[in-house]
Amino acid sequence: MRSKVIAGNWKMNKVLSEAEQFADSVTGKLPKDDNVEAIVCAPFPFLPSLVEKAKGSKLKIGAQNMHSEDNGAFTGEVSPAMLHELGVTHVVIGHSERREQFAETDDSVNKKVHAAFNHDLTPIVCVGETLEQREANETMSQIETQVQKGLEGLTDEQIGSVIIAYEPIWAIGTGKSASSADANQVCTYIRNIVKNMTSENIAEQLVVQYGGSVKPATIDELLEQPDIDGALVGGASLEAESFLQLVEAGTK
Ligand SMILES: O=C[C@H](O)COP(=O)(O)O
């Protein structure tokens, strides 16, 4: 059985003291259940302190982006090796905000996914359609392109350990979540794309999350769906109490 994976994506929020307070509030209270994983993907300056505070707890710490190269003349960038040495375990790749505002493409996403595996980081690969694409019935073709290109050239074993986050762009930060049935339909489709790219059983290992206005009040219904294995959560992951409720939902 696949574990449920609840990942908070703090985006560009909090200052270090608030991040540390959050870690102090949640680390001792996370459920011991092995069937749920809890991750916080935080801004770069918080990572060393959060990794330290999460030691010995169930909380894992992720980054929200990285460069695909190991090092070089890339002013302002952070490499996968830097993240790995800090003790970061996960990295969000290709979030729609990065695709839209920082010109990330399926090609750069693919390079970063390979780089993540080269440095023992688990990539959380974001895919999703705009409202215009949904209304034009282009959701599935958009998702198919993003998944196929994003995972191109990976081994079956690597594909089986990727986390894919399905995040319809119109649902992000809008308070307007996809219905659980609609979200599940796309997550099933993602699993089928991966089934066609890999050998037997790999797609069954794949963790597919839903993201987009997930709240403690809506997570149960989402996690009851057969192909939704967790959530990538922005706003509702910022408060310790709400994050704990989301992770608790993964134990049910
Ligand atoms: O990465 C997280 C998503 O962009 C969802 O953000 P949200 O939960 O604030 O809608």
TrEMBL record:
GO terms for biological process: gluconeogenesis; glyceraldehyde-3-phosphate biosynthetic process; glycerol catabolic process; glycolytic process. It is found in: Cytoplasm. The modification Phosphoserine is found at residue 213. One of its GO terms (molecular function) is triose-phosphate isomerase activity. Its EC number is 5.3.1.1. InterPro entries: Aldolase_TIM, TIM_sf, TrioseP_Isoase_bac/euk, Triosephosphate_isomerase, Triosephosphate_isomerase_AS. Pfam families: TIM. Its main location: cytoplasm. It catalyses: D-glyceraldehyde 3-phosphate = dihydroxyacetone phosphate. Keywords: Cytoplasm, Gluconeogenesis, Glycolysis, Isomerase, Phosphoprotein. Coiled coil: none annotated. Involved in the gluconeogenesis. Catalyzes stereospecifically the conversion of dihydroxyacetone phosphate (DHAP) to D-glyceraldehyde-3-phosphate (G3P). Belongs to the triosephosphate isomerase family. Homodimer. This is Triosephosphate isomerase. It comes from Lentibacillus amyloliquefaciens. The lineage of its organism: Bacteria, Bacillati, Bacillota, Bacilli, Bacillales.
